[in-house]
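ok so I'm stuck.
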Amino acid sequence: MKEHTLMRSAILLFWTLFWGLSVVDKIIPDVQHLWVGKDFFALFVKFFASLGLKDSLFPTVALAGVSGLEALNFTMYAVALWALWRGRNAQAEVWFFRGIFTSMGLFSLFSIADQVFGDRFQLLEHGLFWVILLCSWILFKFFAAESERVVDLGTTRGAVVLGLGLTLAATWSIRDFSASTFDAGSQPVPGEEVVEGVWKFDFPFLADKLVWERTVNAFTEAHPELEVTYIYTGPSELNAKKKTHLLLYVFTEPRQDH
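replied:
not stuck anymore, here's the structure
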């Protein structure tokens, strides 16, 4: 396989998968088996509410627009990849440029939104993606179709075998971890009374709002004599020590009718 085809295919494949999975993330926002989605609608609601725009129409339109642009990006990269594999280098370059230009425009909009909503961390992330897109276009042009260098896969056979072995080992490890821990992400979390009237709940990885609802229901059923008065999220410093966990503290007091 020629060097330019291999490198161009790698660049196009990355961005095709990137935008394709981004669209899937909008379609499947919840936690599924071997998939942890993000609830972008709730995030958009929070952003617009911070500006005093509490009508659900605003986040709905914004999310629909972003999802549509991401689907458009995915289509452009997929067409470019298909054209490259069919040997139509000029057509692949045209569609890749369209995808790059549209993607840079989308990340520019994201960056503006980050500044408006005050999300400086996302601003850095989206700015880096903008630069990476520009670098991708430069590299794509650098590996021009006129290059005649050929990549000899025979000299890299050992590295390929080693990489495949490591990939299979990592896949098996992740699969085994998922099989043993996935159920914990959907079961009610038992509480621990750390001091009188204060209960600690250590939520595991993958736990979502449904787990929290089940936990509250299970707690109130197990302790009908208690009334929940306050719910406190553990300090970020404590949660940071367990990257995939969340600490919640529930303050209770005896019910008057018991």
